[in-house]
Amino acid sequence: xxxxxxxxxxxxxxxxxxxxxxxxxxxxxxxxxxxxxxxxxxxxxxxxxxxxxxxxxxxxxxxxxxxxxxxxxxxxxxxxxxxxxxxxxxxxxxxxxxxxxxxxxxxxxxxxxxxxxxxxxxxxxxxxxxxxxxxxxxxxxxxxxxxxxxxxxxxxxxxxxxxxxxxxxxxxxxxxxxxxxxxxxxxxxxxxxxxxxxxxxxxxxxxxxxxxxxxxxxxxxxxxxxxxxxxxxxxxxxxxxxxxxxxxxxxxxxxxxxxxxxxxxxxxxxxxxxxxxxxxxxxxxxxxxxxxxxxxxxxxxxxxxxxxxxxxxxxxxxxxxxxxxxxxxxxxxxxxxxxxxxxxxxxxxxxxxxxxxxxxxxxxxxxxxxxxxxxxxxxxxxxxxxxxxxxxxxxxxxxxxxxxxxxxxxxxxxxxxxxxxxxxxxxxxxxxxxxxxxxxxxxxxxxxxxxxxxxxxxxxxxxxxxxxxxxxxxxxxxxxxxxxxxxxxxxxxxx
Length: 495
What we know:
Elements: H1 2-19, E1 22-28, E2 32-33, E3 37-46, E4 55-62, E5 69-74, E6 78-84, E7 93-104, E8 108-121, E9 126-132, E10 135-138, E11 141-143, E12 148-154, H2 156-162, E13 168-175, E14 178-183, E15 187-190, E16 198-208, E17 230-235, E18 240-244, E19 260-263, E20 292-303, E21 307-312, E22 316-318, E23 322-330, E24 335-343, E25 358-360, E26 364-370, E27 375-384, E28 389-399, H3 407-437, H4 458-471, H5 479-494
Parallel strand pairs: 2-8, 11-20, 18-19, 22-28
Antiparallel strand pairs: 1-3, 3-6, 4-5, 4-7, 7-8, 9-10, 9-12, 12-15, 13-14, 13-16, 16-20, 17-18, 21-23, 23-26, 24-25, 24-27, 27-28
Helix pairs in contact: 3-4
């Protein structure tokens, strides 16, 4: 007897120890709307984090009333469990699911378990997305220059639910509490053309197993201006009546809607039902338990994109000049900008982004830069605001200029040289004239010879003086010497 107790104790210790070698994780794709299937996923691991081998029993159960239970046996370490909570059997609210895993061999024993909480909701789960060309994900700011596509994106289980079982689902669209028709593809297009204005966009999704399919109009309207004016919207807790006096966009186009709508300028939109919400109030009380509703809302601001980028300044620079370029543009603030300088010609790809940028209240700034070498450069400016980005390349040419000497540099040396030459010439002439003035001359009484005393101008005397200075011979003898020679010869002849 004691041996049996000891063996049983050892077996329990073994299985307890073996059970500590496993763990299970639990996840789901909730929350889900009443009636939709929620999927739970259980993954079994060994102590090393790998999928174990063997046969395992997965036991599922929740805490709902009435309770859901399920079990499955197999070798798979990953198991799924689908369960739904339809109205009016179940009420919306939080629930809990537990999975218990047991090892199946000669005997079955517990090895691990896990619990998880989830929510069952009264309204459809999801969100409203907005997109524009070039901007696939808009949070709350849209551009005034492009049409906005609004899309209701339901969670996967809720979308499967409203699109299955031959259900009819319509989405009704409102801008500032003005009804603009409904769509069957969860989409709505609208152009907010006035910057600086804020809007509220609402979508009411109604899914019903017996909703009639609407008929389409002959000439559908697919776009509208944001200048639409509304009449009055009177609401109570469960009904809404909208009176629109301008454009009503319908995409896809319809003539039957589940709201009371009067439209005096476009194709009539007929029909009325109870709408389970008050304008701009997400507290919805579904009036029909057979229908499933969803409410989605976006508050948006409209801004003008960056446009009309202009430059003031010279982009042809002499080498040594400083670039001074003034850039201005239009659009809604705030603005951010950065610049990059490339050598040579740069072709913008449109994918350029700012590593660091400056923030401006107004789109006007100055670009200054000194180029140390001549050549061609490209300055790439990236200007953006909340709804747009512009990449603007600007070509800059820096050229060399051959420097010519100034006229004074040539005239002054030449003039000085001429003056010096004149001074030298006059000096030489004056010197010669002075020397001639002190030369001893002997009168020649040879009256038979022609007189040499002719009248001469100063210029002629100067020329004569210069000529005599360079042609006088060293053997030249004075007239006195000639006379003395003649006398001695006379005396000798007398002897």
